[in-house]
Amino acid sequence: MGIDGQRLEMLFVTPEKRGKGIGRQLLEYGIEKYAISELTVNAQNPLAKAFYIHMGFQVYKRTDFDEQGNPYPLLYMRRVI
After folding, report:
1. pLDDT at res. 67
2. Which residues, 6 or more positions from 27, have their beta carbon under 8 angstroms from its beta carbon?
3. Rounded distance, CA 45 to CA 28, Å?
4. How many domains are there within the chain?
5. Residue 43: which region, alpha, beta or left (left: phi > 0; alpha: psi -120 to 50)?
6. How do residues 69-78 score in pLDDT, each as one tens digit?
7. Domain containing 29: what range?
8. Are 45 and 4 spatial neighbours (Cβ–Cβ below 8 Å)?
9. What's 48's domain CATH number?
10. Contact at 8 Å (CB) between 61 and 29?
11. Distances (CA, A) of 31 to 39, 47, 65, 72
12. What is the C-alpha to C-alpha distance for residues 8 and 56, in angstroms, rounded to an integer?
């Protein structure tokens, strides 16, 4: 998990550990300890997008390129709960 200010920049869970609550625990820790209220996720990762929606975030902005100018669309999400 990588955090910049109150923004979650990245959260990775290995495939064999997915579905066991680790992502939820990490995100809840970040919300509690670092006041995470926003995040960025690759738009081509529907599982991550669904996870963040389930955790109370919603998309407020979409780009066609990542922050380095590469053709990877990003979704910017804010916590609404």
Report:
1. 87
2. 1, 8, 11, 36, 55
3. 20
4. 1
5. alpha
6. 999 999 999 9
7. 2-13+20-79
8. no
9. 3.40.630.30
10. no
11. 11, 20, 27, 26
12. 14
Locate tokens 């955790």: which residue? Answer: 55
At residue 33's C-alpha, the angle toward residues 28 and 36, to 5°, is 65
What is the torsional sign of CA 45, 50, 64, 11?
A: negative
The residue to which tokens 């992502």 are assigned: 23
Residue 17, amino acid? K
Going by the DSSP 8-state scheme, the letter that residue 58 receives in this structure is: E
**Would you state the structure tokens that stand for residue 33, as one six-digit string?**
């300890």
* Alpha carbon distances (Å) from 34 to 3, 45, 56, 63: 8, 24, 16, 26
pLDDT tens, residue by residue, 14-68: 999 989 999 999 999 999 999 999 999 999 999 999 999 999 999 999 999 998 9
Residue 81 has pLDDT above 80, yes or no: no
